[in-house]
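Fold this complex.
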Amino acid sequence: MKTTRTILLAALLSATALSTAYAADTIKIGVDTPLSGTYAGIGQQVKWGLELATKEVNAKGGIMGRQIELIYEDSEANPAVAVQKAEKLFEVSKVDFLTGTVNSGATLAVGQVAERAKKLLATTVSFADSITGEKCSPNVFRVNAKAGQQSTALAAWLAKEKPKAKVFFLGPDYLMGRSTVSAFKEAAEKVGAKSLGEVYAPLGSKDYSQYFGQIRAAQPQVLYTSVAGNDTVRLFTQMQEFGLLKNLTLLGASGTVTSQNIAAIGKAAEGFATGVGYSTEIDNPVNKAFVAAFKAANKADPDLYGTDSYGLIYAYKAAVEKAKSTDTDKVRTALRGLTWSTPQGEKTIRAGDHQAMQTMYVVQVTNGQFKIISKVSGEDAIGPDTCTRF
Amino acid sequence: MVDALTRSMRASHLLLAILVAASLVVAAIGAALGDIFYLRLATEALIFGGLAISVDILLGYTGLLSLGQALYFGLGAYLSALVLMVVPSFWAAIAATTLASAVAGLIGGFIVNRVRGVYFALITFGMAQVAAKIVYNTRALGASDGLIGVPVIDINLGVTSISSGSPVGFFLFVLALIVVMYALAAYLLDTPFGRLLIALRANEARIPFLGYRTMTPRLAAYVVAAVIAGVSGALYPMLRGFVSPELMYFETSGNAVITVVTGGTGTLVGALYGSALLTLLKSVIGSFTPHHLIVIGILFMGAVIFLPKGIMGSIRPAIERMLARGEKP
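Structure:
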C-alpha cells in the first residue's frame, strides 16, 4: 500500500516537473475561437490554418528554438464567453499571444481584455472596419482584409471595367447589410460611379419581384447586393426568370455567393464578381504549396479564414525573431511595419492602425467556378488611416 | 410560533451563510495566491446568480415562468455602461438602472400579466427577443458589436473606495450587494405579500374569494424581479468593461432558468448555488471539450430526474427539520 502511494506520488511529481519544464520552453499562443455554435465552421478553418503553420514552424525548429504550443478555448461566438475565456488564457494558461476571435463584437471586447492584461491580440477573421478604425487599440492587430479593402478593390475594378457605371443597390434590411451597401456605394462614387437608387429587402425574403419594377425603371448597368445565403439563391434566380440579368453586371459582398450556395444559384450566378482577400486560385509557389499541404492535412480546401490564420503564425514568428523576445511592447514594435510572406503574397502591417495591407483580388463566376479576373495592390485598397489612439 | 414558510426561509438563510463563508474563504485564498481569473469568474457567477434570484421570485414563488428575464438584465447592463462612460460613478449607474428597470418592469408587467401559463412564458420570451433585436440594429448602442470602453471605476463607499478592477475587492463588493438583494427578496417573500404570491402559485382562482386582487401582487412581483435583474445586469459592464446584445438573448434567460431549476426552485439561495456550480462547470468542461453543452445538458437532465427539487431543494428539508427540533419548547 505504502509503496503504491510512493510510486504514485513520484509519478505525479515527475509529471508536474516535466510539464513545467515543457511549458517554460514553449511559446504559448491562445486561440479563443468558436468551436461550437453558429460560427463553428469558421473556427474549424482557423484551427486548421493555425495548426498547419504551427506544425511547419515547429518542424523547422520553432521560433528562436522554442516550440509553439496552441491552447484552445471555445468562445461559442458569444463576446461574453469570449472575454471570460480570454482572461483564462491570459491569467491561467499564461499565453504569450492571443488570436482566433471571429465575430467583430468578440474581437473588440477581447481586445480590451488584452489591453488591460498588457498582452497582444490579432484577429484573422473579423472584418468590421472599426477594429482598426475608430475603435482601434494599441494591443490589437488584424492580418486579414477589412470590409473596406474588399469594397475598394471591387470599386477599383468597376471603374476600370465600366467607367462611370450606373449602379443600383439592393441590400438585406439589417445593420450589417446596410453598412456593407453604404461602404461600397461610397467607394464606387469616389471612383466616378453614379448611384441610381437603393432598396432594402427583409432578411429571408421569399419574393424579390416587388423590387424589380424599381430596378427596371432605373435602368442600371450594375447591380450591387449584399444579401447572403439562400436569399442570394432566390434573388438571382428570380431576376433570371424576369429577364433582368441581360446586360447587367452583378456585384456583391464576399459572402453573397459562396461555395455553399453557388450550386443552387446555378446559371444565374454567371458573371457575378466580388472583391476578396484570398482565393485558392492565386498563382504563386507559396500558395500552391499551402493549398496542397492544407488539403492533405484536412481533406478540405482552405478558405479565407484558414489562410489568414496560417499567415498569422508566420507574422508572429517574424516579429518575435525581430524583437528577440515575446515581450508585449517589443513584439508590438516589431509587428508595426512588418512585411512577411503569405499564400496571399506579401503582407505589410501598417504601423498607424495595425491593419495588414495585402493585394486584393476581384473574382468572377465563370462556368460555376470563381476565377481571379483582377488584382488591386495593397496600397490602393487600404484607404486612409482613421485610427487616432496611437 | 414559527410557520413552515418562515422556517424554510431560515433554512435558506443558513445555507446562504454557508455560501458567504465559503466565498470569503475563496476570496482569502484567491487574494493570497494573487489569482485574477477565478475571482473574476466567481464575481460573474454572483452577477448571474442575481439574475437567477429574479427568475426564482417569479418561478419559485409566484409560479410564473419567465423566459425573457435577460431583457431587464440587458437593460441594466446597457444603461450602466452608458452612464459609466459619461459619469464614472457607481451610484449614478445603480440609481439609473434601478429606476429604469422598475419603470420597464411596470410597463412590461402590464403587457405580460394579461396572460397566464405558457402564454406568459412566450410573451416574456418574445419581448426579450424584440428588445435584443432592436439593440442589435441600433448604431448608437454599438449594434451587433456592442459597446466597449466602459472604464474601470472606483466605487465610493464613504469611508473607503473599491476599484472594480480589483479582483478580490470587487468580488467582495458584489457578494455584499447580492446578499443585500437576497435579503430584500427574502424579507418581502416572508411578509403577507409573499404569502399571497405563494397562494397565487398554488391556486390563482381562489385568491379573489379570499378578498385579494390578483393583478397587483403579480405585477409587484414582476417589478421586483425586474429591478433585481436590472441591478445585477448593471454590475456586468463594471466587471467586464463591455456589453453586447448577446446579454439579452434567450441564451442568457434560458441559462438563468436552468440555474434556478438545478439549484432548487423556490429556495432563493438555490439560484446562487446553481450559478456558482454552472459557471464553474462551464468554464472547466469548456476548456476540455467543444462538446461541453452536451455535458451540461446531461447534468441538467440528471438533476431534473434525480433531484427534481434541485440541489438546495433536496438539502433544505433536512435543515428545516433540524431547525424545527431546535424550536421545540
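The mean pLDDT of chain B is 91.
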